[in-house]
Amino acid sequence: MKPLLFDQNLSPRLVNLLADIYPGCVHVDSIGLPTARDREVWEYALQHGYIIVTKDADFSELSLWLGFPPKVIWIRRGNCSTRNIEELLRENYDEIAILSDNPNTGIITLF
Predict the structure, then answer these.
(1) What residue segments make up the domains of the chain, in order of their start?
(2) Which of 11, 17, 30, 64 has the greatest number of CB atoms lying within 10 Å of its CB?
(3) Residue 89 φ then ψ, to 5°
(4) Are 100 and 69 in contact (CB under 8 A)?
């Protein structure tokens, strides 16, 4: 499975919380992109083989406009805790693995 790249709208703590199930994940803060524009994050993910995890609708639009990779996990929950996001990503591991491996799918939406 490709590693995950957490967008700035998600907690950097997710990297450590999910390291057991999603090894190799990073947060935009840790790679020098804490205030980067969406297109910069997109390009980084493309060049380094990451799946973008975000709550930002702009990445789904980029996926439609530019195609994929990179692939996108779009979290469509309103205000919620980091623990809720962690649980959501754990509960949907199988679907995320399919996204990662399926050449015909570029985005998954999680509610």
Answers:
(1) 4-110
(2) 17
(3) -70, -35
(4) no
